[in-house]
Write a structure and sequence with these properties.
globular; 10 strands; DUF5947; DUF5947 family protein; 8 helices; about 220 residues; seven-stranded mixed β-sheet; single chain; alpha+beta
Length: about 220
């Protein structure tokens, strides 16, 4: 059974609101670095506070301080994204992960010493207890997972279209701030019981944008 927990991720929603804020208004207040209060460019770096998992906006100078620093409370989120075209996961393996929807992201928490599984919902990011044996079976067959940077990179899975026989399943190594951006989009645009047309348009746009900027990686399954 899945055990759901919401409160730890409410702390990330300050950043989620920034991801989803309309940026076209000239009256939009200047975003500030959450460490030194310097003004930020629209395309600015992010940091993760490891204990709270909170995403922080940072200026280039503050982000550089934590770039590769060990034993720090913050880690800089990298920009790389990879589209894993031959990632191998059977329907049975996915079901064994006990994720209740067909979309989720997974990262290794250095604080907790385990892989954390989260899925987006209208209420935000929800944690699902991850069966270790099921995850290890998938990791053993996909070398890409051995390269995930703890805390800041995720395996992002989109099997929504695959579940309806419309598209193939998609697998990415993605920066964790991109995953919280997806959560914010869903939380902001979800309407009614099924979500409504707007949220599915936004989800489609998100994955189209991610795919367009990701490096295509193949030939790493069954390493």
């Amino acid at each position: 059974m899945n055990e759901e927990t919401l409160p730890p991720f409410e702390q990330a929603f300050g950043a989620l609101r920034q991801f989803t804020r309309t940026r076209s208004s000239e009256s939009r207040p200047l975003e500030q670095c959450e460490l030194c209060s310097a003004g930020l460019a629209q395309d600015h770096p992010h940091l993760v506070e490891l204990i709270s998992r909170q995403i922080l906006c940072a200026c280039d100078a503050c982000a550089m301080l934590f770039d590769g620093m060990e034993k720090s409370k913050y880690k800089r989120v990298p920009r790389r994204a990879q589209y894993l075209t031959d990632f191998e996961m059977t329907d049975g393996q996915w079901e064994s992960l006990l994720i209740p929807i067909n979309m989720a992201f997974f990262f290794r928490s250095s604080i907790e010493g385990r892989v954390v599984a989260l899925y987006p919902s209208p209420a935000g990011a929800v944690e699902s207890l991850l069966p270790l044996e099921a995850w290890n079976e998938i990791a053993d067959g996909n070398r890409a997972l051995s390269r995930l940077l703890p805390d800041v990179e995720t395996l992002l899975v989109n099997r929504v279209g695959h579940a309806h026989g419309l598209t193939r399943a998609e697998y990415y190594i993605a920066p964790i701030d991109e995953c919280y951006k997806l959560v914010g989009l869903i939380r902001t645009n979800w309407r009614g019981l099924s979500g409504g047309a707007d949220v599915w348009t936004e989800i489609g746009r998100f994955f189209s944008d991610l795919r367009s900027k990701a490096d295509v990686v193949s030939g790493e399954a069954n390493a």
